[in-house]
Amino acid sequence: MIHAVIGGGAAGIFAALRCKSQHPDAQVVVFEKTNQLLAKVRISGGGRCNVTHACFDPKQLVQNYPRGAKELLGPFHSFQPKDTIAWFEARGVTLKTEADGRMFPITDSSQTIIDCLLAEADKIGVEIRKQAKIESVVKVEGGFLIDQMRVDRLILATGSSSFGYQVAKSFGHSIVEPVPSLFTFNVPTSNLLDLAGISVPHAVLTIKETGHRQEGPLLITHWGFSGPAALKLSAWAARELHDLDYKATLVIQWTDTESFLERKGYPAIPRNLLVRLGINPAVPMRTLSNKVLSQMGEKLSADAYAVEGKTTYKQEFVTAGGIHLKEVDFKTMQSRITPGLFFAGEILNIDGITGGFNFQNAWTTGWLAGNAS
Ligand SMILES: Cc1cc2nc3c(=O)[nH]c(=O)nc-3n(C[C@H](O)[C@H](O)[C@H](O)COP(=O)(O)OP(=O)(O)OC[C@H]3O[C@@H](n4cnc5c(N)ncnc54)[C@H](O)[C@@H]3O)c2cc1C
């Protein structure tokens, strides 16, 4: 029996490892077109690799996936962050949790993760072929012909590359149009650009045109806005913002204004920012007229900016879109259209917000595909 995996990223390698552990006597071969395996793992999380997220309740976990939440619920009962932690721990890699829940190897180096995965592949006998770009895949009786090689089972783990989508299409699958997710907002007309580096701990962001709303820390950048609230918003509104050509009105509630409007004090946000918003905290509150107070309240709670484009977030970006999820059996990751064909990772129409959720999707769907193939 020959099991082939196309794609030497997180999903493909993890699928191959699980597959080989289930079928020690089978030949399991990974084809990777570049000469670098796990290239995204290497650069991920700023070189530290945000492997997963410390969220262990599948119901809560799925809420971090703008696309794929419903479908991942079952899979997370089979393989979730706890299992990821245990898998690496059993192979000598300890993960640590940061205050916001993101998990990294204690070495703070993505190389630790790469070394662990590749040592395991070597140990159990997964065959890895680098610089092996697959050009064609066709169905033959009982299996597939991958270029010149006949295989029995095929796991497609080609990430967001067009090749994977083409192969899936040739087997009757439909592709949800790929669009970027996890980006920051360009606001060239913002009068805050020179305050780059200033952040507020809890802003509420709304896209006026679509009504999408997200909250959390917000960072002012040289080009507009970033930080967790902006990134989450970009993920949840990825498709609609694409349709708007990334031109939209971003409405910012900088802080809760209740106690300010009750004249209990100026909001606890950086003074430079307050002043730029037209609020001078040196002025005693009792001297403000009701009209001025309410104008200031309006500025603090509904401050509008014209978004004119997006900038890729270097720490982590992903593709929304991919294989239509209703065409995949999420118990096995097998195609509902072509038996013997499996999918794992970003090739699926699944993406998470930033924080380790995208790798968790790769580990979980890779594990399931390898388990069943
Ligand atoms: C800069 C950056 C940082 C990130 N940081 C994080 C993070 O810290 N945490 C997190 O959870 N997520 C992170 N992500 C997202 C995460 O890296 C991806 O979701 C994940 O790597 C997807 O894995 P995959 O195996 O599905 O696809 P990929 O990693 O894209 O792997 C697909 C592989 O298939 C190969 N391939 C394609 N076509 C062929 C072909 N014809 N023949 C052979 N091989 C082929 C490609 O060369 C590639 O190696 C980051 C992404 C980026 C870009």
Structure description:
With 373 residues, the chain is α+β, with helices and mostly antiparallel strands. The protein folds into two domains: 2-179 and 316-372, FAD/NAD(P)-binding domain; 183-312, no CATH class. It contains 13 helices and 22 strands. It has helices spanning 10-22, 39-47, 58-61, 69-78, 81-90, 110-124, 162-170, 228-236, 238-243, 258-261, 271-276, 290-301, 357-372; strands at residues 2-6, 27-31, 52-53, 95-97, 102-105, 127-129, 137-140, 143-146, 149-151, 153-156, 175-181, 183-186, 199-207, 213-220, 224-226, 248-253, 303-307, 309-312, 318-323, 328-329, 334-335, 341-343. It has a seven-stranded antiparallel sheet. The protein has a five-stranded parallel sheet with strand order 6-2-1-10-22, with helices on one face. A hairpin with a 5-residue loop joins strand 13 and strand 14 (213-220). Helix 1 packs parallel to helix 13 (357-372). The radius of gyration is 24 Å and the shape is elongated. Flavin-adenine dinucleotide is lined by residues 6-12, 31-34, 39-40, 43-45, 49-50, 133-134, 157-159, 161, 163, 315-318, 345-346, 356-359, 362.
